Amino acid sequence: MFMNFVQKRDMLLPIAKFGAPILRHRGIPVDLEDPGLQNLIENMWETMYHVNGCGLAAPQVNKSIRLFVVDSMPTYMQMEDAERNIVFDGDQGIKEVFINPVITSRSERIWWDEEGCLSIPGITLRISRSWSVSIRYFDDQLHERTRTFLGITARMIQHEYDHIEGKLFLDYLDAGRRLLLKNRFDRINRDDASGS
């Protein structure tokens, strides 16, 4: 069954904001034969770069499917060498499409760092993630791959993977911290509803 991905090439896609039900749905597998898949991927890249993101998942552009894109190379380029050596761990970043991904393992080693989300603008939070992650997926050429990623790149992948699972980075907060932020979340919903 095709998901009707056919859309105009080079089109900015609307980003679903916090409170949109689609952000809480687990995505369904992508039909690799869908004729509009490559256009959707190109439009996701264009949308992500337009809003200065480093990753974007299909549910964030109102497609409840298992697809996301990550580009950690600009983050790598913006860092000083000493910081790069720590958070990239020898990696130089990636630009990659992840179709129907499955995380097969996560390291026990964790680390804390700031995260933001294009669907929750204006909020960054310190979140714990696994240092490394192994993932099986199809790339943009529809080749099946299995790779292990480290540091910042692994963090970005885990963040986007959560989106296709219907999870947000806010879910890592305890109930007390979520309550403290509730007013800010309500303001995002009000601003979005009023078109601000």
Walkthrough of the structure:
With 196 residues, the chain is of the alpha+beta class. It has one domain (21-190): Peptide deformylase (Peptide Deformylase). The chain is built from five helices and seven strands. The strands form two sheets. Strands 1-2-3-6-7 form a five-stranded antiparallel beta sheet, sandwiched between helices. Strands 4-5 form a two-stranded antiparallel sheet. It is globular and about 45 Å long. The chain starts with 36 loop residues before the first helix and ends with a helix. It is an enzyme of class 3 (hydrolase).
Write down the CATH topology. Answer: Peptide Deformylase
The general outline is globular
Number of separate domains: 1
The CATH homologous superfamily name equals Peptide deformylase
Let me know the number of strands.
Answer: 7
Instruction: Determine the structural class based on helices, strands and strand pairing.
Output: alpha+beta
**Averaged pLDDT:** 89
Family: Belongs to the polypeptide deformylase family.
Keywords: Hydrolase, Iron, Metal-binding, Protein biosynthesis
Active site: 160
Enzyme class: hydrolase
